[in-house]
Amino acid sequence: MSFLVLALSVGAACCLGFGFVLQQNAAQDAPLSDFLSLRLLLDLVRIPRWLLGIGLMVCGMVLGALALGQGEVSLVEPLLATNLLFAMALSRHRTGQPLGRQGWGGLALLAGGVSAFIVAGRPRSGTATVDPVRHWLIIGVVAGTAMVLTVCAKRTRLSWGPALLALAAGLLYGLQDALTRISGQRLGDGGWLELSTGWQPYAVVGLGVTGLVLVQSAFETAPLRMSLPALTAAQPLAGIACGVGFLGDRLRTDAGALAWEAAGLAGVVAGIVLLGIHPAMPQGSAEAARERIAA
User: Please, what's the b/e burial string for 215-225 (b: 16 or more CB within 10 A of its CB; e: otherwise)?
Assistant: First the structure.
């Protein structure tokens, strides 16, 4: 792993984490009539702190794209999952809540899980698969699962809905990261003409807008702790699946390595859950959300 990839990935995670906190802080006051609608973005664009959060997120996405251009998806995605650490830091500053055992335990599990996966798996580049059936099957499964989660979220938007929307958005963002890497390769191989003639860059934009609507809808209906952990967990898992599935990324597959990789991913998910339910994460108000629906 090069220092450049590490620096770009951690920088991206920092921008994403700070940006998500600012976005949720603004989105929780948006009209719930805009739930899962592009009108939600039009309402939020008038709020300066939301624009600042979006600016930070865009910076994070740019840094993440640069990292993906230099390293494997299976390496970059777990590092991007550390955005929750930075969200935790900003939330702690805003709320004044100490970390305590739960917070420190979540930090240790997240950092240790990322380290264990990278050390055990030793992600490295390989030859991307040319089998279109496998390529589209993986894309279809990821996108289809996100669609099913969104449909289910519409029926339970004040209970499980925010977590389901965040899961769906995370899957789409993981797929977006994989297609971003392909777009970068097309740009490097044939320039802007090669890039513009492929479908991948347009899919990247479409996935980005769709994911943004899903995330902001989750942010407006529930506390950040109910959405950000799910988003942070789903994105690297989807990215790793795409990286290994059709981008040619390779991981060590001996028994010992697989065991440590599984333990590392489990640690990442467990750490994300512990941090997500920590009191330092902004809570918002479910009652206020219900009042806005009634109004």
Answer: bbbbbbbbbbb
Closest residue by Cα to residue 19 from 288, 230, 228, 229? 228
**Contact indicator for 229, 170 with CB cutoff of 8 Å:** no
**DSSP one-letter string for 67-125:** HHHHS-HHHHHHHHTTHHHHHHHHHHHHH----HHHHHHHHHHHHHHHHHHHHHH--B-
Q: Cα separation of 176 and 170, whole Å? A: 10
Decide: helix, strand or coil at residue 250.
strand
Question: Residue 143 pLDDT more than 90?
Answer: yes
The CA-based angle 273-279-281, given to 5 degrees, is 70
CB 198 within 8 A of CB 183: yes
pLDDT band at 56 (very low <50, low <70, confident <90, very high): very high
Checking 41-48 for CB contacts under 8 A at 24+ apart, the result is: 41/212, 41/213, 41/216, 44/216
CA distance 164 to 169: 9
Eight-class DSSP state of 129: P
Report the C-alpha gap between 124 and 284 in whole angstroms. 42
Q: 124 pairs with which residues across the strands?
A: 250
CB 220 within 8 A of CB 158: no
Its pTM stands at: 0.79
CA-based nearest residue to 60, from 22, 19, 1, 6: 19
Q: What is the DSSP letter of 128?
A: P
CB atoms within 10 A of CB 256: 9
Mean pLDDT score, 184-201:
86
**Mean pLDDT taken over the chain:** 82
Alpha carbons 279 and 268: distance in angstroms, whole number: 19
Buried b (16+ CB within 10 A) or exposed e, 268-277: bbbbbbbbbe
